[in-house]
Design goal:
Butyryl-CoA Dehydrogenase, subunit A, domain 2; alpha+beta; 3 domains; four-stranded mixed β-sheet; Butyryl-Coa Dehydrogenase, subunit A, domain 1; Butyryl-CoA Dehydrogenase, subunit A, domain 3; single chain; 10 helices; binds flavin-adenine dinucleotide
């Protein structure tokens, strides 16, 4: 088994690492404190090609694959997890258009995303009443001539109000079984009848804006339907399989930053006349975190490698997500413990890492839902 990265993967990792250290990490605490959407940084990341890591060059992407994508998100998340999720969702929308879009949609929208012309792109599946049970969504899209009229309320839209393009799932056939009556639409920012609400006040990822989107008679050209009618749920689930690699990588990035901060602190802080890193209790925490981080990253790489090999990776992406995100939470808790009282303050970054890590167990499918997916995949393979 070869764990070595190829030249392209190394190059993408290095671009993301430099951007993370030179742009994101410096402002992450201030953006978190002020809940500031990092528009300037996103513009720079888009121009670096990080909005289309796994998109063909023909459409302006880096054509660097899913492993490169995971490497990029991990690096960005170590600097600013909120920026990383914005970039991850933007890549997810780009991949959905690449997989399900026609040539006109790719020329019109995919090239805009990959060029960094939008601050972000958004993925809008969830609603106030439908989260884990996404197929029960109630927003509607009714065909009128060569347009669809969208009505309803979407929830938890990452980059809502900032994105240039929204991938919105709405019900086109109320009589079909729930998962079969949904279609996907590309809705441009500023389309009359679509409004973003005030941002949610969140525990973490405060520099990532999360809003509701309200649709009231919003008219979308029929040519903006992504794929045929009725496959919107399939589009969403395909996007989320890949998205879970992104969340895994994001969790690994947050955990890496927390672990490195805690390890450094253990060499600097002295109690009882010696560095706290001399105490076995602290050493064991460092060892457990390092080991969990390594295992988590390998699971993430495995899911990404399968995606690159064009092998079905639903089970592996779910395993990766549940393991990486739960490990990241444990690692961040340990980091706070190693810093003692200082870890609980904003003077050090580990409290932010802990707050940022928490949501990775919730979005793009909760840990419980990942376990449902893993068990279903195993049982149906028997
Ligand atoms: C910061 C943030 C950003 C987000 N960004 C986006 C976005 O960009 N686009 C988007 O569409 N959505 C987004 N989401 C929504 C996110 O995907 C949902 O929050 C998530 O899917 C869970 O849905 P829910 O919050 O409605 O919880 P619920 O589905 O109500 O779940 C509540 C609890 O019940 C458990 N549960 C539910 N069903 C089962 C089951 N069958 N078996 C066992 N346990 C179960 C869950 O695991 C959870 O613990 C975001 C959420 C957050 C918090």
């Amino acid at each position: 088994m070869d764990f070595a990265l190829n030249d392209i993967q190394e190059a993408i990792r290095d671009v993301a690492r430099r951007a993370s250290q030179k742009l994101l990490a410096l402002n992450a605490a201030a953006y978190d404190e002020g809940a500031i959407f990092p528009e300037e940084n996103l513009k720079a990341l888009g121009e670096m090609g990080l909005f289309g890591v796994n998109i063909p060059e023909r459409w302006g992407g880096a054509e660097a694959g899913a492993v490169s994508y995971a490497l990029a998100i991990r690096e960005l998340a170590a600097g600013c997890a909120a920026t990383a999720v914005t970039v991850a969702v933007t890549n997810m929308v780009a991949e959905a258009i690449n997989t399900f879009g026609d040539e006109v949609q790719k020329a019109r929208y995919l090239t805009q995303i990959t060029a960094g012309a939008y601050p972000a792109a958004s993925f809008s599946l969830s609603e106030p009443g439908s989260g884990s049970d996404a197929a029960s969504l109630r927003a509607t899209a009714v065909r009128e001539g060569d347009e669809y009229v969208l009505n309803g309320t979407k929830a938890w839209v990452t980059s809502g109000g900032h994105a240039g393009l929204y991938l919105v799932m709405a019900r086109t056939d109320p009589d079909a079984p729930p998962a079969k009556g949904i279609s996907a639409f590309l809705v441009e920012a500023g389309t009359p009848g679509m409004t973003a609400s005030k941002p949610e006040k969140k525990l973490g990822l405060r520099a990532s804006t999360t809003t509701e989107l309200v649709f009231e008679g919003c008219r979308v050209p029929a040519e903006n339907r992504l794929g045929p009618e009725g496959i919107g749920f399939q589009i969403a689930m395909t996007a989320l399989d890949g998205g879970r690699i992104g969340v895994s990588a994001q969790a690994c990035g947050i955990a890496t930053a927390a672990h490195e901060a805690a390890t450094r602190y253990a060499t600097e802080r002295a109690q009882f006349g010696r560095p706290i890193g001399d105490f076995q209790a602290i050493q064991w925490m460092i060892a457990d975190s390092a080991t969990q981080l390594e295992a988590a990253w390998l699971l993430c790489l495995r899911a990404a490698s399968l995606k690159d090999a064009k092998v079905r990776f639903t089970r592996e992406a779910a395993m990766s997500k549940v393991f990486c995100t739960e490990a990241a939470n444990e690692i961040c808790h340990r980091a706070v413990q190693i810093l003692g009282g200082y870890g609980y303050t904003r003077e050090y970054p580990v409290e932010r890492h802990l707050r940022d890590a928490r949501v990775t167990r919730i979005y793009e499918g909760t840990s419980e839902v990942q376990r449902v997916v893993i068990a279903r995949e195993i049982l149906k393979s028997l």
